[in-house]
Amino acid sequence: MPTLSAMPFPMTSRRWLWLFLLMLGAAFLVQLGAWGPLESSEARYSEIGREMLTGQDWLHPRLLGIQHFHKPPLTYWLTAAGLGLFGENTLGVRLLPVLAVLLQVVLMYGLGLLLFQQDRARALAAAVIYGTLPVVLISVLNVTTDAYLATLELAAAYGILRYYSGGGVRWLYLFWIGLGLAFLTKGPVGFVLPLMVMLGFYVKQGQHKRPFTVHHWLGFGLFLLVGLSWYLYLVAEDPAFIRYFLYEHTVERFANAATFNRAKPWWFYLVLAPATSLPWAVALIVRAIQTPWNSVPRQWRNVLIFWVLVPLVFFSLSKSKLLLYVLPIFPGVVLLTVYYLGRCTEAALHRWYVGILAFYGLLLGLLCMLPVFSAVFPLGIEVRPFTAAYPAAGVVVMVLLLTLWNQVRIAPRLLVSTVLFTVTLLLTAKPIMQQNELAFNGSRPLAQFIRNNHLENRRVLVYNELLPSLAFELGQVPVSLNDGNASLNRETQFEPNDTWHRYLLYLNDPKQEPLLGGLLLQQPVMLVKGEIKPERHWMLRYFKQQQKLGKWTVMW
């Protein structure tokens, strides 16, 4: 049987890193804008960025016409910049997060070099595994603050470790600037990974401390300037922001599950973190259990304790939980995985290779069958037959390459198969997202229906739902009709006047009935998700036609 030649250049060459970045970037970019922003988080960031770009107010983020200060502005600025550079479309929203994740991969390679004492093969393995983790892929395809935050935290962590390892003072400045930008992205939580990295470096390792110099003061000054300037500006404008930032969005977010309706059980991350880092989480857990603790060097004990376990406990104690909040633990997870697998014999590594390839093959096989499953079982999604071509082609390519490739060592084969699986997974997921936008809480089909029926020039009313994705798709802010939905309670206390009533009406407030009546007389379009409350049925007489689209009813 003919075979392909061995590796064209050694695994220690940086060219493998750039080849991986090229493949991963291309897999991200293909059909990146094929579906619209999805509710709720991605739609919010997309629409706030669009309104910021349109209104040119860079200091007061607005969501559906009303000021919105749930997060610091850096993500909104970057979203607005992406929309300005690449167009007011979903590609403009998602392109910069793709670049951010590719930069994370480069930073992981750099961290790998530092922790593995310039072993480029292991550093490359860390970069590849990190870039192919399911949780990292999710952070790109569902835009939030977390992709940017992870990039800045990694930059700060790399900067301080590089400085501690004898690097020049510029790495110290990278640490402080990265920390400041992380604070401007998500507040105090941006300290988690850099602080844990510093603790992991010093605790019980007897590391020599570099002298305190004027550069530390200058770096700290840069952090204050970058990280606190926006907060101080708003506090000077309105002292009420002090309580708002320090209590409602720090203490309350951490301690009160009801504040942002993100209550999850304490074990939420203990299940989701391993599940979204498969199959590597299994390898890490099994190898860590099998390896005697006293045989693990202090450096790697500290990585496990401070980079993974302490942040995991911290985020688990928080009452407000979302999957991507724990993104900072995964650099430690990946580095530990490479360390523990690196201790394996070639025979043991071959067993892991067979098991991981079996896992990939099983998932690709299930994806090939997904069109059949969606037709037979009530999955709630539509998967067209041609979608199976992507995983089928992925299986063929992986089998041919790994059969014909004359490579004896296991590690390169394992990494290459992981990259091929990830590329196949990304190419398969995007058509599924496009075919099921309404099921996945997107509004592009709703906007297309409004345009197709030449209704785009009418006022749009959204009954009892916050729907920024529709505003993004239409390029206009609808009127939200709040009929008791707590998610529609907005931060109107910071509005300078009552003009916000143009975008939000409280139906339980009798004083706003004239405004509602005036809107209904203008022949608007109204969108209702589910059923309208019986006491509001009188509004239906203003609409002569209606069309059901998924869970939504469009009335006009």
Automatic annotation (TrEMBL):
**Signal peptide range:** none
| Major subcellular location class | membrane
Q: Transmembrane stretches, by residue range?
A: 95-116, 123-144, 173-202, 214-233, 266-288, 300-317, 323-341, 353-376, 388-405, 414-433
Pfam families, alphabetically?
PMT (PF02366)
Species assigned in the record: Hymenobacter taeanensis
- Subcellular location per the Swiss-Prot or TrEMBL entry: Cell membrane
Q: Which domain of life is it from?
A: Bacteria
Give one GO biological process term: lipopolysaccharide biosynthetic process
GO CC annotation: plasma membrane
Listed GO MF terms? mannosyltransferase activity; pentosyltransferase activity
Indicate what this protein is called per its UniProt record.
Glycosyltransferase family 39 protein
| Record InterPro entries | ArnT-like_N, LipidA_mod_glycosyltrf_83
Record domain ArnT-like N-terminal: where: 41-245
User: What is the membrane topology here?
Assistant: Multi-pass membrane protein
Q: Which UniProt keywords apply?
A: Cell membrane, Glycosyltransferase, Membrane, Transferase, Transmembrane, Transmembrane helix
